[in-house]
Amino acid sequence: MFLRLFILLGTYNLVIGVMFNIKPNGQKCLKEDIQPNQLVKGEYEVTTVPGQLIDYIARDTKGHILSKGEHITKGKFTFMSEVYETYEICFISKVPPHQRGIEQEIKLVTKKGVETRSYEGIQEAAKLKPMEVELKRLEDLSDSIVRDFALMRKREEEMRDTNEKTNSRVLFFSIFSMCCLLGLATWQVLYLRRYFKAKKLIE
Fold this sequence. Notes:
Elements: H1 2-11, E1 15-22, E2 27-34, E3 39-46, E4 53-59, E5 65-69, E6 74-80, E7 85-94, E8 104-112, H2 119-126, H3 130-198
Antiparallel strand pairs: 1-8, 2-7, 3-6, 3-8, 4-5, 4-7
């Protein structure tokens, strides 16, 4: 059982590394859902091309800027999430009008939550053995997984409540529509009956 848990926690990786190309005067954004009060760290490296510039900006869905940099080549960034939301980091290419641009390669590695902690410092401060440090890391990682599942369960409950409310509203609207149609059909029958009687087409 402990071995299965160890393998599960070992495969639960919070480090995300990507490599992509950005076209001249283009823009590429990467989005990710992040829990509230979670530290995010990132490292980037951009292939340099004479005359071409790359900027980056990290922001939330409301447009609040969390981190940004201009004319980047290689560096790091950090920011703290305030609420559960989708955050994005965008890379923007800038090429002078008189220059023919070429694609640039960007390498990005992001860490969040447990992976941002320095367990080497914890080992030195508490004088822990390597196995104890690894167990501490696994304990923090398991807590992070539990919080993720709790958040997923909460979101699932909210979505289920929304679906149930929507279904009830659709049901009431359907019943109301049927009542309106039945009332209209009854009115048409009575009106036509009076009309035909007035024209003496029926008795």
